[in-house]
Amino acid sequence: MSKVKVGLIQMALKTSTEEHPNAIRDTMLSAHESYIAEAAAQGVQVLCFQEVFTQPYFCPSQDKKWYAAAEAIPDGHTTRLMQEYARSHNMVIVVPIYEEAMPGVYYNTAAVIDADGTYMGKYRKTHIPQVAGFWEKFFFKPGASNWPVFRTAYLNLGVYICYDRHFPEGWRALALRGAEYIVNPSATVAGLSEYLWKLEQPASAAANGVYIGAINRIGHEAPWNIGEFYGQSYVVNPRGDIEAIASRNTDELLVHEIDRELVREVRDGWQFLRDRRPETYDVLTDLETL
User: Fold this and answer.
1) Is residue 48 annotated as part of the catalytic site, yes or no?
2) What pTM did the predictor assign?
3) CA-CA distance, 192 to 124, in Å (whole number)?
4) Would you place residue 192 in the very low, low, confident or very high pLDDT band (cuts 50, 70, 90)?
5) Biggest distance spanned by C-alpha atoms of the chain
6) Which one of the listed residues 125, 136, 180, 252 is annotated catalytic?
7) Active-site residue, 65 included
């Protein structure tokens, strides 16, 4: 199968952050139902949501209330529900949620579910920011997932999450492990990093000969109001060309068909993976030189 139809869902928060995290989760899941159904109706084969899609982006706070938003994977409510949707629609679904590994240990994670509803595994966000407005180390332990690539029913899929995108090493590791399409569920606001939104993922797609699906939420989230989540989710091809992009401020399902053959064509042309020189890169991992 050369052509694969992918879908990205961007969405604003649908309820008050004063609600209990379980109530927020249920509201957000309900809000996604019609978009999942529409994705199925349009023939989407690989679907991805935004970062921690069942909750607000709560990291401007350092409030222990949000630990209650974490769920087990794969045995938690959201993952099991998405397994049902995947099975029903014959659709691969990437499920970015807040994970509880054990009491007191939490990760920013994406579960990957194959088209027959099988739970394939998860990726835990590797790079965790800790700057004003993004106090993520209060909530998330850094992951060490060893760059899994999931051989799904339709394509080889990788996951990188939000702040990860600023680090080129992970994109390369996923490409070397066989990824053809990498999703980057995010929660990013206007300001310091907005100009990078349409720069980093296209550059990484071109450098590694992969498709990338970049997903961002929309709107403002009280009480923190750290800025506008500016949407503009998009799909970029292995040449670095953005082929499809969503709006800035509207709930939206972005659907786009990608061509896996273009991965081979671009890599055969540029040969970046052949010409790399890992034996000369010791400085990247030699902590004594830093």
Assistant:
1) no
2) 0.97
3) 25
4) confident
5) 55
6) 125
7) no
Run of H or E including 126: none
- Mean pLDDT of all residues belonging to the chain: 97
The 10s digit of each residue's pLDDT in 68-80 is 999 999 999 999 9
Could you report the per-residue pLDDT of 15-44, keeping only the tens digit for each? 999 999 999 999 999 999 999 999 999 999
Q: Which domain holds residue 15?
A: 3-289
Residue 289 has pLDDT above 70, yes or no: no
Cα angle vertex 93, ends 15, 159, to 5°?
A: 95
* 117 token code pair: 């509803």
Catalytic residue among 99, 122, 162, 252: 162
Helix or strand (DSSP H, E) at 101: strand 92-102
Catalytic (active site) residue 51 = yes
d(CA 130, CA 109): 17
Asked if 33 and 3 touch (Cβ cutoff 8 Å), the reply is: no
Q: How far apart are CA 106 and CA 109, in angstroms?
A: 9
Q: Where residue 290 falls among pLDDT bands split at 50, 70, 90?
A: low
- Which CATH number goes with the domain that contains 30? 3.60.110.10
When divided into structural domains, the chain yields a total of: 1
Please give the structure tokens belonging to residue 275. Answer: 């010409």
- 3-class SS letters over 2-26: CEEEEEEEECCCCCCCCCCHHHHHH
Closest CA to 112 of 90, 88, 86, 94: 94
Across the beta sheet with 119-124, the strand order is: 119-124, 105-113, 92-102, 46-48, 3-10, 252-259
